[in-house]
Amino acid sequence: MNSNPLLGVIFHWLGGLASGSFYVPFRAVKRWSWETYWLVGGVFSWIFAPWILGLLMSTDLVGVLREAQTSTLGWCFFWGVLWGFGGLTFGLTMRYLGMSLGMAMVLGYCAAFGTLMPPIFDGQFGSQVLGTVSGRIILAGVGVCMAGIAFAGKAGISKESEMSPKQKKEVIKEFNLRKGVIVATFSGVMSSCFSYGLRAGDPIKEIALRHGTTTLWQGLPVLVPVLLGGFATNFIWCVILNIRNKTGREYLSPYSKEGAVPLASNYFFSALAGVTWYFQFFFYTMGETQMGKYKFSSWTLHMASIIIFSSLWGIALHEWRGASARTKMWLFISLAVLVLSTIVVGYGNYVGTLPANG
What we know:
Blueprint: H1 5-21, H2 34-57, H3 61-67, H4 70-121, H5 125-130, H6 133-162, H7 165-171, H8 177-191, H9 193-200, H10 202-210, H11 220-244, E1 255-256, E2 259-260, H12 263-288, H13 298-316, H14 325-353
């Protein structure tokens, strides 16, 4: 299959829509602690979804994983574990900062580390990025993306300075800027490890192709060990919180101190959130196959699209209520710049497909 950067951008935008939307169903969960609904959603996003979609869309998933070297699976799992710490603290970031500012900060760090470190580590940054026209255009697109993220952060900080403590608590019940910034920094750096896990799984993609999986679905088997690592981290921490906070009974109890618990509804919306989350990387692996030799740029496209859609959700959920026209202007500038970044990165990849500019 020949690369098609435009199609790749579309796939990454679909992934960004999934990622930017996944936290919304959690808002419908009633009378469950964070650790309870986070773990239930995680079982669906990190265990059920990758196995089910991997079995359906790829060929001989079990055989592919058996053929992969133990070291390859180990590195995928290792990076998944580290990414799991980012996923854990990402949930805390949403609690402290809300969707708009929280995602902007986390994904800013994540975009920078996850995009630039793989080609630097592979020794290709000088020759493949700085040494080609297409690479320099893509690098410019990464810079535009970072500017858009900075504008989003500016909008969030401006909003925080304008709102009264009461208003902040009404929109984001546990709003805490200082805690949020610390947690978001850690979460962003750790979350970028997912990019390293996908790169570590390149040998698995080659095996999947040999077993008959089409190019478009070759990345799905890689998600199984990477997400298993993320699940391990989240499972351990959530169980610790269940024990510490005495919330383990919530998984089965139809009642809480506040009243009746809608168990079926809680499981449904947690599962919906988890499966929606998984689809970000389902589409990511598809988009990556269309970006040619500059597939490292996929991470920037992914991050930019997530921020765009999460910001739109923040607007729809009234997280910007009470903000001034100036603050909202910063928000819309950030969205416009992020859209521009996806265009620049996509164009750079297109230039890379031209024989004279590759």
